[in-house]
Description:
Layout: H1 2-23, H2 29-46, E1 65-71, H3 75-87, E2 96-100, E3 116-117, H4 124-138, H5 140-144, E4 161-165, H6 170-182, E5 187-190, H7 192-198, E6 209-213, E7 218-219, H8 222-235, E8 239-256, E9 262-275, E10 281-291, H9 297-303, E11 321-332, E12 343-345, E13 351-354, E14 360-364, H10 382-396, E15 404-416, E16 423-426, E17 433-437, H11 443-460, H12 474-478
Parallel strand pairs: 1-2, 1-10, 2-8, 4-12, 10-17
Antiparallel strand pairs: 3-7, 4-6, 5-6, 8-9, 9-10, 11-14, 11-15, 12-13, 13-14, 16-17
Amino acid sequence: xxxxxxxxxxxxxxxxxxxxxxxxxxxxxxxxxxxxxxxxxxxxxxxxxxxxxxxxxxxxxxxxxxxxxxxxxxxxxxxxxxxxxxxxxxxxxxxxxxxxxxxxxxxxxxxxxxxxxxxxxxxxxxxxxxxxxxxxxxxxxxxxxxxxxxxxxxxxxxxxxxxxxxxxxxxxxxxxxxxxxxxxxxxxxxxxxxxxxxxxxxxxxxxxxxxxxxxxxxxxxxxxxxxxxxxxxxxxxxxxxxxxxxxxxxxxxxxxxxxxxxxxxxxxxxxxxxxxxxxxxxxxxxxxxxxxxxxxxxxxxxxxxxxxxxxxxxxxxxxxxxxxxxxxxxxxxxxxxxxxxxxxxxxxxxxxxxxxxxxxxxxxxxxxxxxxxxxxxxxxxxxxxxxxxxxxxxxxxxxxxxxxxxxxxxxxxxxxxxxxxxxxxxxxxxxxxxxxxxxxxxxxxxxxxxxxxxxxxxxxxxxxxxxxxxxxxxxxxxxxxxxxxxxx
Length: 488
């Protein structure tokens, strides 16, 4: 069907040139228009289908081949694209295509995020990623400047994260802060008395210890980062296509392991991109595929045959990433915490931060496993706020007793059900599919570092800036969870 369309398009282009030549003659206007109309009628009588436009626009189609196809145009996919072009050995050496289903980003996790960044993690790798990203964001216009384009303003609010711990969690918090400081993060511990003195609007009942980020923590405008990355990579020659990846075509080879087992290795050599509002698809030959499809990265992995083998084998090990719906509520409280308020996370898991200067606040809570909402839509459950979010927040901040909810929205986490940490690097059997997914709500803040890590693995064959070996896919088969204690 595609060849037929291209043949017709080619024929119509020749006709268009003929019409153009005809118009260039000396025939008077009325006579010329009549002859053009007659020619059009004759052509329409021999070509099937509806009335046509002789100039068939193919600008929306992806190229026939690209060195790298990135599935997903959010901040993670764009960051990988940026670092591939930034680190290539000569300009134009790598052709990169980004395929994104929705260029409005209306349901993208990036656009629906609250934009937080913190170094308060328990894993050294997560801390290092966020420190790298903090430096990237602080110097954003050194990285993402484009000639003749205005500078980016991320509207960074460097007010820190404030995490609260009960008596039961105090020892773990102390241990976490020790690791954070060893990695170079500036975090302090506060007693309930110190907490009350610094933030008198907090009720310290039940709080045994607090940790407070003093530098490189806070929140920023995620939409600005997304658009800044997109603008920059386009200036670097990255191509974009609005469409959905529906199929991978692979070749196979067989090898034996040291134990004598035979395994099948697959290599993707063609990606099928279904065009928006069409039944047509465009095949794109490629050398590498980056799976940065966020909450849908598990489904994209399945298209490549990942997880389709016998249970308990590497071939049968799936990418354990799925969409999880999370609510964000916006409320107003005239007597609420002032402009110095950090992003506060209660020991219940409920969190909030200020939004602008008008005593508005954003917040939410991740539900327990048994109460996960249906991810099939992005409808908001306001009862969840009333029953689960408001009570712990009103206890922690008494002024919130009188808050008024103004609006809310829902977005998706690309939730890693195995250990809630990211998946970075190549698949061991589908050897040219690389992952940048599964960050379970931390993808936005860690995207700059993750993008560089994936690009290093692609270009050099190993991680260089930050060793993210614990985040490789193989841990799912080996059953080796990497335990992150601070999941918000």
